[in-house]
Write a structure and sequence with these properties.
Elements: H1 8-14, H2 30-43, H3 57-70, H4 72-82, E1 88-90, E2 97-98, H5 150-153, E3 162-164, H6 172-180, E4 184-186, H7 201-204, H8 208-217, H9 221-224, E5 225-226
Helix pairs in contact: 2-3
């Protein structure tokens, strides 16, 4: 087994989520292809450097690209994150550098991978992210305020959920939206607030989990630097 290969447990979780395509020529073994895809994502190498043990590199790349367009990665992540029904949800953002060749990305292209680049602020509190190359006609997303992108991320929050976030998300609009959902915002109030909402420093300690999550994501070199154009 290679360094970045799926364990038997991970494969048992992922296998039922893969598309079933019985028609046509038998496709290359899914597990081997996925291991090849994850090798590229983790190592940061180019597709042409994929070791032969993972089969034809074109098969790995085509599967990756085809499933991206078909939304397979999205559905896979939806199914995996749905299995976690935590009472505490954490929201935060981070950024990564883009490799010089990534600056030539075509407008309208959407990059979605199982573990996705972190420079965009479109982050699901469970860790899933969606990143788009910036559109020159739109404000630079990397310069946008974190709180401005929070609304879509909090749509799934259910009643009784505690949301942990830093001061960047201390906005009346966010707090009101969470109250309407029956959720509680444990966000440190900004210093310029006249009325300080209740805030638990004990619960806030759990926010270190998302920082550790970012750290683990950046072990994947294609996440730590946006290589693909």
């Amino acid at each position: 087994m290679g360094r970045y290969d799926l364990t038997d447990f991970e494969w048992r979780v992922i296998e039922p989520l893969l598309p079933n395509e019985p028609r046509g020529m038998p496709r290359v073994d899914d597990r081997r292809v996925l291991n090849g895809i994850f090798w590229v994502l983790r190592s940061g190498a180019s597709w042409r450097d994929l070791p032969e043990r993972y089969g034809p590199r074109i098969a790995c790349y085509n599967r990756f690209a085809r499933w991206r367009k078909a939304g397979v990665w999205d559905r896979m992540m939806d199914a995996i994150t749905a299995a976690h029904d935590g009472d505490i949800q954490i929201i935060d953002s981070t950024s990564v550098r883009a490799y010089q060749q990534a600056a030539t990305a075509k407008r309208g292209i959407e990059i979605i991978v199982l573990v996705v680049p972190e420079w965009a602020h479109d982050q699901n509190p469970c860790g899933r992210r969606r990143a788009r190359p910036p559109d020159p006609a739109e404000p630079d997303r990397r310069q946008s305020h974190d709180g401005q992108t929070a609304d879509d991320l909090l749509d799934h929050i259910g009643a009784g959920t505690i949301v942990l976030a830093d001061k960047a998300y201390d906005a009346d609009r966010i707090r009101a939206s969470l109250r309407e959902k029956g959720a509680f915002a444990n966000i440190p109030p900004k210093s310029n607030r006249r009325s300080k909402p209740y805030f638990s420093t004990w619960l806030y300690r759990e926010r270190n989990l998302i920082e550790r999550f970012f750290s683990k994501l950046k072990h994947f070199r294609r996440v730590a630097a946006r290589y693909d154009s």
